[in-house]
Design goal:
9 strands; 7 helices; alpha/beta
């Protein structure tokens, strides 16, 4: 049984999606399925997805008949996951080749962990690191009590952790509770909060996630 689903909600991401696809194809951990749902793109994104699926049998495509909004499209790819682990992947971001190989063992080894994250680097539109404080490392939990772990995670929390690796059943429950919230940016943080307060978040310094500031999180759906 495949263990990981990568859910990719897509809307007019042709300018960046090739880099995201290349990063997924380069993963050293290969036991995954991709569910890519196109929200009626008009910029050639759908054709790029079709070419990807034609060369990789792990890629499952869906194209909506009409634009259902970003939050609903994020929900769609999660709803159709049939694996124990799940992650979202935006069209304008990318991850290091060892991303899944570093994060899967964290969930395997810790039954109480429901979200595994990597270090994060925020990049500009052109893919270069932001000038100041571009990289955020996951906090070091060595020797910390549960209370101190929760405090450390709250202080260093990153909305980009929403693109970490989840236990599918956990993120489904949380997503249902906050799925009607109107802004993508705020919904990210609301979905992360229960994982943080439950001390269910762990991280790896071995992997890296690159978050591009493309402005999608400012949209209201």
């Amino acid at each position: 049984m495949t263990r990981v689903t990568i859910g990719m909600p897509v809307y007019n991401g042709a300018a960046y999606i090739e880099q995201a696809i290349a990063a997924i194809e380069a993963q050293t951990y290969t036991d995954f399925t991709v569910i890519a749902a196109d929200n009626v793109s008009t910029d050639g994104s759908w054709e790029i997805l079709q070419a990807w699926a034609a060369r990789d049998r792990r890629v499952i495509l869906h194209r909506h008949d009409e634009n259902i909004g970003a939050l609903a499209n994020f929900r769609y790819v999660l709803d159709h996951a049939e694996t124990p682990y799940f992650m979202w992947h935006a069209v304008d971001d990318w991850m290091s080749p060892d991303y899944l190989s570093a994060l899967c063992p964290i969930l395997d080894a810790a039954p109480t962990c429901a979200l595994a994250c990597a270090d994060v680097t925020r990049v500009l539109i052109d893919g270069s690191p932001k000038p100041r404080k571009a990289t955020q490392s996951f906090p070091d939990f060595s020797g910390l009590s549960r209370r101190r772990r929760v405090t450390a995670t709250l202080r260093s929390r990153e909305a980009v952790w929403i693109y970490g690796l989840f236990r599918t059943d956990h993120i489904r429950r949380v997503q249902q509770e906050v799925g009607d919230f109107g802004y993508v940016w705020s919904a990210d943080r609301l979905m992360l909060l229960p994982f943080i307060l439950d001390d269910a978040v762990r991280g790896s310094a071995e992997a890296h996630f690159y978050s591009r500031a493309a402005g999608a999180s400012n949209q209201l759906y």
